[in-house]
Specification:
By secondary structure, the chain is α/β, with parallel strands linked by helices. The chain has 23 helices and 22 strands. It folds into two domains: about 325 residues, Alpha/Beta hydrolase fold, catalytic domain (Rossmann fold); about 300 residues, Rossmann fold, CATH 3.40.50.1820. α2 packs parallel to α16, α17 crosses α18 and α18 crosses α20.
Length: about 725
């Protein structure tokens, strides 16, 4: 055996030995096998508390006066959490074709719900009487085809054959309003739920919501119908299944001109929704909805005593138990009005689908309440081929008629927010004080009062350092694991390192903490909720992009509790306990983040969690970059704060750190690529000026190194100074 072979064997043995190091804290604790669901369950617990408070209020409503007061409060709350709506502008309707069919006609058209935002629709008009017809607005569920799918045409054509005019329209992201249409593949890059949530996440960061603009489209549909002589303005109804159930219940809650509403396969309770499939796609979530005490029952209760029908199935993805409990609550308000016949619920033994029994109940409901008697029998119909109902020449607005979409709203909002920020940054001290206050409120941060119990979980002794494992038990059921890498020869320097360390058997994942501890620096490495051993959890949902669940993030938006607040509170817990076990007094603590965790670190710093220096590796450049571009990296979304961009951006949080030392290494743009220097110069010009004004220009450093070879040296130099 030659010396080279021996060296190779020794190197292999060394690597195998290293590979056996286990960086997991929780594999020893079987009780915490559910720790990966920590983030979602924390959000659920917050939501359930709000729901209990709501239930207490509902239980105290006894008289008609009590309910009327509640209705007014709910109406104001709904406008608060969804509005403000745009101003009404000319609809500019354009009819593209009229189809004559056996016993009815179809008018294909589009109108503008806002200037340049076109809504494609079809108006089905029964033969015979041409004026003052009872009219139904039909909302499509999550189908790429929109109202053109066979199952929706079955309902539409049956209603028409029974003498109703039916107005069916495409919501954003469906039918002819696909926002991410790929011409080569002749379809969207996303499913219809993701068509809503991808731009919907950007809207939330901008302080708006998909719900606002989808509801607005429905309100403008009513505006359009009131221009038509065929429509009886006193007898307008609305219905839809699944996502159409969402739209119909939402639109009717905001538009009193709609007399009767029949949402199908949607209405349940948020409690059972959270316990089953979790929050749904973007438009089904209201900003601070849970926090403001809103449940799905409110959407129908606020309309009472106007006619309402809940259409349900016993195996629906929207819990039937929740639907039944909602029915019992809603009955109370109709009883108070002494108009219980105006409310009913029908259920059939089926899954998330339309059934003959439920369709016939829907026909009968509208026939009764919209003054249109006749048979409610579900008839066999012959649906049109989808292409026959295309309003545009190509079947897509994006390829035939110029139209704007949700992203255009985002871009406009982001530009306005940035201009506002630029103006406010002129008075630096006032602005940064405002950022400190507003960021706490918007993110939902609350300074920790109960720091939990610290549990020591074992020690591994290495040549030059020890690896101690800990966990913090808090709120009776949650756990926060962290590792302390402590050098044998202690120094006055310490670091908190934030990253998604899900690989617990790889030294490569822990390369930076290991390098630092070998340099004599104490390193604290927590797994923050949603990551490492405390994530990602079972909740994926219908808005799942690149291993990132928007649905979990939506729960935080409903609660008014961002992941950034939960992360900052977790950091506060960890550092509190480290102050005891490490005797941190006198130690300089540097906050180090990798990737999007720079947002967690900066929010923690702004919330008053002290760091002497900050070193950010591959940080997100800004919230504005995420919402100003049509394409963006989905994994960045959980690290943003809904409504945040109206008040601050990440550069403002960096400026708040001044004059402390901050280094940003290889900042990332909206797509997760290395940001261009010109982008960074523009984005952080304000921060550089702030450091200059404090005679600390050398303390703010931006490094862009495409070779990625200088990181080790930079870290060493950063701690030497």
């Amino acid at each position: 055996m030659n010396k080279y072979t021996l060296s190779a064997i020794l190197l292999l043995i060394c690597k195998l030995t290293i590979a056996q190091v286990d960086y997991s804290v929780l594999n020893y604790w079987t009780y915490y096998s559910d720790a990966e669901n920590t983030l979602y369950k924390q959000q659920c617990d917050i939501a359930f508390k709000y729901m209990e408070e709501r239930s207490d209020k509902i239980s105290q409503l006894k008289t008609i006066e009590d309910w009327r007061k509640r209705q007014q409060e709910v109406k104001e709350t709904l406008y608060k959490i969804v509005g403000p709506f745009p101003e009404k502008t000319p609809l500019n309707p354009v009819t593209t074709e009229k189809i004559k069919a056996d016993g009815f006609s179809v008018e294909k058209l589009y109108f503008e719900s806002m200037p340049e935002y076109k809504v494609t629709a079809a108006f089905f008009i029964p033969g015979g009487k041409k004026r003052n017809l009872p009219t139904i607005i039909f909302c499509s569920g999550h189908s790429d085809l929109g109202f053109r799918s066979d199952v929706y045409q079955t309902m539409i054509l049956n209603l028409v054959m029974k003498g109703f005019a039916v107005f069916a329209f495409d919501p954003y992201g469906q039918g002819e309003r696909l926002q991410y249409f790929d011409e080569k593949q002749s379809k969207s890059r996303f499913s219809s739920t993701r068509e809503h949530s991808y731009p919907g996440a950007q809207l939330f960061v901008n302080g708006a919501s998909t719900a606002r603009y989808m509801i607005w489209d429905g309100i403008r549909c009513v505006d359009y119908l009131l221009t038509r002589k065929e429509v009886d303005p006193e007898n307008i109804g609305i219905t839809g299944r699944s996502g159409g159930g969402t739209q119909s219940s939402h639109i009717a809650a905001f538009d009193e001109r709609i007399k009767a509403v029949a949402p199908e396969c949607y209405v349940t309770t948020f409690e059972y929704l959270l316990k089953s499939n979790g929050p749904q796609d973007a438009e089904q979530n209201f900003y601070h909805g849970f926090m403001e005490g809103i449940d799905l029952a409110d959407l129908l209760e606020v309309r009472a005593p106007k006619p309402a029908l809940m259409i349900t199935t016993t195996r629906d993805i929207f819990s039937i138990q929740g639907a039944r409990e909602t029915r019992e609550e809603i009955k109370k308000v109709y009883d108070a009005y002494d108009l219980i016949d105006n409310f009913q619920m029908i259920e059939d033994d089926a899954g998330h689908q339309s059934t003959k029994k439920n369709r016939e109940a829907m026909y009968a409901f509208f026939q009764k309440h919209l003054d249109n008697s006749g048979s409610s029998e579900d008839l066999e119909v012959k649906p049109f081929p989808a292409e026959a109902l295309h309003v545009t020449e190509t079947g897509q607005l994006s390829t035939s008629i110029e139209s704007k979409f949700l992203f255009d709203i985002n871009k406009t909002l982001a530009e306005a927010h940035l201009q506002d920020l630029i103006g406010r940054r002129q008075d630096v001290l006032t602005h940064l004080e405002s950022v400190k206050n507003s960021s706490r409120i918007i993110a939902g941060f609350q300074s920790v009062q109960d720091f939990g119990k610290l549990v020591f979980s074992g020690r591994t002794v290495m040549d030059s350092y020890t690896m101690d494992k800990y966990l913090v038990e808090y709120n009776a059921q949650y756990v926060l694991p962290f590792i302390v890498f402590a050098p044998r020869v202690a120094s006055s320097k310490a670091a908190l390192y934030l990253d998604d360390l899900s690989d617990k058997e790889s030294e490569e994942s822990y390369e930076i903490p290991l390098q630092l501890v070998k340099d004599g620096i104490t390193v604290i490495v927590p797994d923050l909720p949603g990551y490492g051993e405390t994530g990602p959890g079972y909740m994926k949902g219908d808005a799942y992009f690149n291993n990132t669940s928007y649905n979990q993030w939506f729960a935080g938006i409903q609660n008014g509790k961002s992941m950034m607040a939960i992360h900052a509170e977790s950091i506060q817990k960890v550092l509190y306990h480290c102050n005891t076990i490490l005797d941190m007094e006198g130690k300089k603590v540097t906050g180090i983040s990798k990737g999007a965790f720079n947002s967690s670190l900066l929010h923690a710093a702004t919330f008053g969690i002290g760091f002497d220096n900050i070193f950010m590796i591959e940080p997100i450049m800004s919230f504005a970059s995420i919402v100003s571009n049509k394409e963006y990296e989905p994994s960045f979304i959980p690290f943003s704060v809904a409504g945040g961009l109206k008040y601050y951006d990440l550069p403002d949080l960096v400026a708040d750190v001044a004059p402390k030392k901050v280094l940003m290494y290889n900042s990332l743009d909206h797509l997760g690529r290395l940001a261009e220097k010109s982008e960074m110069d523009v984005t952080y010009d304000f921060v550089e000026k702030q450091y200059k004004s404090m005679d600390s220009e050398s303390n703010f450093i931006i490094v862009s190194d495409k070779s990625n070879e200088s990181l080790v040296e930079l870290l060493s130099d950063f701690f030497k100074e």
